[in-house]
Amino acid sequence: xxNRTSNDAPNEGTQSHTGRKPDQIAYTVRETSDGKEYWNRxxxxxxxxxxxxxxxxxxxxxxxxxxxxxEQREQRMQDYEEERANRQPxxxxxxxxxxxxx
Length: 102
Prior knowledge:
Blueprint: E1 24-31, E2 37-47, E3 54-58, E4 68-71, H1 73-86
Antiparallel strand pairs: 1-2, 1-4, 2-3
């Protein structure tokens, strides 16, 4: 039995993620005998607005009990594009080579 009171977790049970994109995606990763990995999406995770927890919603449960949480791909791509935009430009001013002169 838990010793927690309703004051200990003000947003527990009332946290709504309706309309919000998940902060992370839940996967189960199965490795085959030939070393390949297969990632299957099994749910999603939303961070609580107060920053003190998160809500994990699973559509299925992995057989081995292992769950991998990863950031949304869109967020990773946005971070990559921002990082790339902040880098110094590379001077690749090469003229096209259309073969030998005739």
